[in-house]
């Protein structure tokens, strides 16, 4: 009995802690969004490109696998990408 009550209490405390954390995070996003809209007119600075760390990791892995294997070709490709004008970059 005591172990079940203890587990239940821990579960409720965890739920409350997570709820408070999520609310705090939402409030921070709201504040950052308001500041960004007032300063730059866009909220894209606070919106992450990837929904999760795993999605970012998968994208990075696929990108690295798609790069040429030889160091010279890889360096030349990355240099050409980094030196191109941001207006020419259209990765959509």
Key structural traits:
about 90 residues
Task: Characterise the protein shown here.
The chain is mainly alpha-helical and 92 residues long. It folds into two domains: 1-47, no CATH class; 48-85, no CATH class. The protein is 71% helix and 0% strand. It contains three helices and no strands. The chain has helices spanning 2-39, 53-66, 71-83. The N and C termini lie far apart (58 Å).
Poorly predicted runs: none
Provide a count of the helices. 3
Structural class call reads mainly alpha
Largest sheet report: none
Strand residue content? under 5%
Q: Radius of gyration over alpha carbons?
A: 22 Å
**Domains, number:** 2
Level of helix content? over 70%
Could you give the order of the helices and strands? HHH
Give the mean pLDDT.
82
N-to-C span: 58 Å
DSSP strand tally: 0
Outline, from the CA principal axes?
Answer: elongated
Can you lay out the helices and strands and say which pair or pack?
Layout: H1 2-39, H2 53-66, H3 71-83
Summarize the model shown.
This protein is mainly α and 92 residues long.
């Amino acid at each position: 009995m005591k172990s079940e009550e203890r587990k239940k209490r821990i579960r409720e405390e965890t739920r409350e802690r997570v709820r408070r954390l999520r609310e705090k995070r939402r409030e921070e996003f709201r504040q950052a969004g308001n500041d960004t809209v007032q300063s730059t007119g866009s909220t894209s600075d606070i919106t992450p490109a990837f929904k999760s760390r795993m999605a970012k990791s998968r994208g990075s892995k696929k990108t690295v696998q798609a790069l040429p294997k030889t160091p010279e070709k890889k360096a030349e490709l990355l240099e050409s990408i980094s030196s191109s004008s941001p207006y020419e970059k259209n990765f959509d």
